[in-house]
Design brief:
The protein contains twelve helices and five strands. It is mainly alpha-helical.
């Protein structure tokens, strides 16, 4: 396991836990593995933004320690420090995030710290909200720190394997390029040697050139390398092997095309190989691609016009204008919005009509009616009470007549 870890933290945001965590990581991973931003590491006159980015660039993992005040801590003007593009914490984290897969960013939540939401972060810091965090608690500090150490070791091992695989691929590519250069030199040497022999035998310049062409063609015709074929066509334009080389290049180029190829690629093939046996297939692909492009352009134009039409009536109170929009754009993206707006206006109109009698100036007209209703309710209540009392008296009288005495 090799690599370097950069600890990013906000001063004044639970520095005690940060110090303990630094000591624990240093003990487990080694002094040379851990780097923590401390006072005095930037020399007078240095551009601190460049220095911080350089330090982050040398690390494989950045640990972003998030405490209770990490998100909200403000400067002397009251602005959140994270909103300042030159804030040290922001510069370090953004530099690591911009490195992509080359660096791993691990948020570590110390007591009181919570993972920020993307909406709470400035634009360049928003990707941090998607990172899986590790929590460190005081009650389980040793166990939590050991879990972080294990994860760091796993990440460093993965990065080491990726670097090894990249190095192997780079070495293979270098070897392939070296072999190609060697083959090109050998081919050129063979062609030149044959040309010298032919000149020495008294052959004419035209015969020598033709012999060179045939020798070069014999060397490349089985290689299936488009670059070799293009070089041959450039060197021996108009030669006896041109049609064979061009046909072979057309075959190789056709293999790179499909019905999903771009219009430019298809047009380029037809221009370069007008007599290819694949001309009809490529032409059909091109016709289909142009039709799709035309349809997409028309749809984009229609969507643009529909959006502009909706913008003109979206906040309007003109029902006729909304109805006209609905009739003109029945399959538009804003059809449902227009329907909702029209229903809203109709509802408001109905409510206004119902509320009209209660408007100012009409209230006195309805006052006698309301008073009559109140008197009627009072009268009905009185009648109901009389009926209940009468029924009770009748019941008592009947009981006395039967000798049962009045009910207790």
């Amino acid at each position: 396991m090799t690599g370097r870890i950069f600890i990013n933290y906000r001063r004044g945001d639970d520095a005690g836990t940060v110090g303990r965590l630094f000591d624990r990581l240093e003990q487990a991973l080694g002094r040379d593995t851990i780097f923590m931003d401390v006072e005095g590491h930037i020399k007078a006159g240095d551009d601190y933004v460049d220095v911080l980015r350089a330090q982050v660039s040398q690390c494989d993992i950045l640990i972003a320690v998030i405490g209770p005040r990490w998100l909200t801590m403000a400067d002397e003007t009251g602005r959140r420090r994270l909103e300042n593009p030159e804030d040290w914490v922001r510069v370090e984290v953004v530099s690591a995030l911009e490195a992509g897969a080359k660096k791993r960013v691990i948020p570590v939540l110390v007591p009181g710290g919570e993972m920020p939401r993307a909406d709470d972060l400035p634009g360049p810091l928003k990707p941090l909200a998607r990172k899986q965090a590790v929590r460190i608690t005081l009650e389980r500090f040793n166990a939590d720190a050991q879990g972080l150490v294990s994860q760091i070791r796993g990440v460093l091992d993965d990065l080491a394997m990726q670097r090894a695989a990249t190095e192997v691929e780079r070495a293979a590519t270098h070897e392939s390029e070296r072999q190609r250069e060697a083959d090109d030199k050998a081919r050129l040497a063979a062609v030149e040697a044959r040309a010298r022999e032919q000149r020495a035998s008294g052959m004419s310049a035209a015969d020598v050139r033709k012999a060179e062409e045939l020798a070069n063609w014999d060397f490349i015709k089985a290689q299936d390398d488009p670059d070799d074929l293009r070089d041959h066509l450039a060197r021996f334009s108009g030669g006896s092997t041109e049609r064979y080389a061009r046909a072979r290049l057309g075959e190789l180029t056709f293999k790179t095309l499909s019905s999903s190829s771009s219009i430019e690629e298809l047009q380029s093939f037809l221009e370069a190989f007008p007599t290819s046996k694949h001309e009809s297939a490529v032409q059909a692909w091109l016709t289909a691609a142009e039709a799709i492009a035309k349809s997409q352009a028309e749809a984009a134009n229609r969507n643009g016009r529909e959006t502009a039409a909706w913008a003109a009536v979206a906040t309007s109170s003109d029902q006729l204008a909304l109805q006209e929009f609905l009739s003109q754009w029945p399959d538009g993206a804003h059809f449902a919005d227009a329907q909702a707006r029209l229903r809203e206006l109709i509802y408001e109109q109905q409510v206004t009509a119902l509320d009209a009698p209660l408007a100012a100036g009409a209230d006195t007209r309805w006052k006698p009616a309301r008073q009559r209703n109140l008197l009627l309710v009072a009268a009905l209540t009185s009648v109901t009470a009389v009926i209940v009392i009468t029924a009770a008296l009748v019941k008592i009288g009947l009981a006395v007549l039967h000798g049962a005495g009045p009910p207790v």
